[in-house]
Amino acid sequence: MYTAGNSGASVQQSVTGGVDNLSYSQQLFSRFLNGHSIIIVGYIIALVIIGIIADKKIRSVIVYPAIVLFITFANPVFIKYVAQWVTGVDVYWRIFWLFNISMTFIIGTILIMEKCKNEREAVIGLLVSLAIILACGTSVFENGGWNVRSNIYKLDSSVIQIADAIHKDSKEHTKILLMPKDMAYGIREYCGDICTIVNRYSYESFRDSGLKEKYDVLQKEIYNALYKDQIWDSDKLKNQINEFDIDYVVIYTGSIQNNQIPDEFTAIYKMISIYYIDAIK
């Protein structure tokens, strides 16, 4: 009940530090569009086409919601308030998902095709539309071939290797993993069956469940010992890990030489040492 999958933390309870320095352009162009600013140009053109050509039903589904969204939640004037009370600062950029850019492109292309008077105009219109769409993204294939990228979403390779090692080692539906918080983000993006007990919402989860003191033990005596101080007592670590029902723990290889690994820990991946815990009941 203490894992990411069952955190129970609301979006409003997410970290809101840094709201005063939140940049609308950075959230839109850097985080959401990942530098592909041409997408906005294509999106605005598609909206104008739909607004002029489409019937009322299509406009009410595509154009009007986009206008309302821009006036309200996606308005740069209100970014601080929306980030602090609705989305959270770290994930404000996800508000732009609601614009449904892909569907707008498709409908705009279809409307242009319908207005073409002959096959030649239709082909030209289709090619222009495809060129705009292709210019807005990147290939999902490896350079120089047609093989699908092995890491299509460009996640941290260490995180992928850790998750794959756990999946190979265990067939259990849910596995609880202790790892550095910055790496936990990648686990959440990569798969949904590995629960990271320390993550962005851990504090709120424990606090709202009346277990703040238990979280303090997890943070100060286990997490800090493993990843900040990198000094721990083997027997104490073993007992505390078992108390939290943690199945796997990631340990920095550089900290192993100065510490003893409990006998109950079985190494399953050693590039960044990850251990399976044979819990003592």
Shape: elongated
Approximate helicity band: 40-55%
Low-confidence stretches: 1-17
Task: Give, in spatial order, the strands making up the sheet with the most strands.
Answer: 2-1-3-5-4
Tally of separate helices: 12
Determine the oligomeric state from the structure.
single chain
Structural class: alpha/beta
Q: Look at the structure and give the mean pLDDT.
A: 78
Order of helices and strands: HHHHHHHEHEHHHEHEE
Number of DSSP strand runs: 5
The biggest sheet amounts to: 5 strands, mixed
Q: Alpha-carbon distance between the termini?
A: 19 Å
Rg of Cα set: 24 Å
Beta content: 5-15%
Helix-strand blueprint:
Layout: H1 24-32, H2 38-53, H3 56-71, H4 79-87, H5 101-115, H6 119-135, H7 157-169, E1 175-178, H8 181-190, E2 194-196, H9 202-208, H10 212-227, H11 234-243, E3 248-250, H12 253-256, E4 265-269, E5 274-277
Parallel strand pairs: 1-2, 1-3
Antiparallel strand pairs: 3-5, 4-5
Structure description:
- The protein is an alpha/beta fold and 281 residues long.
- It has 12 helices and 5 strands.
- The chain has helices spanning 24-32, 38-53, 56-71, 79-87, 101-115, 119-135, 157-169, 181-190, 202-208, 212-227, 234-243, 253-256; strands at residues 175-178, 194-196, 248-250, 265-269, 274-277.
- It has a 5-stranded mixed β-sheet.
- Helix 2 packs across helix 5 (101-115) and helix 9 (202-208) runs antiparallel to helix 10.
- It is elongated and about 80 Å long.
- The two termini are 19 Å apart.
- Mean pLDDT is 78; it is low at 1-17.
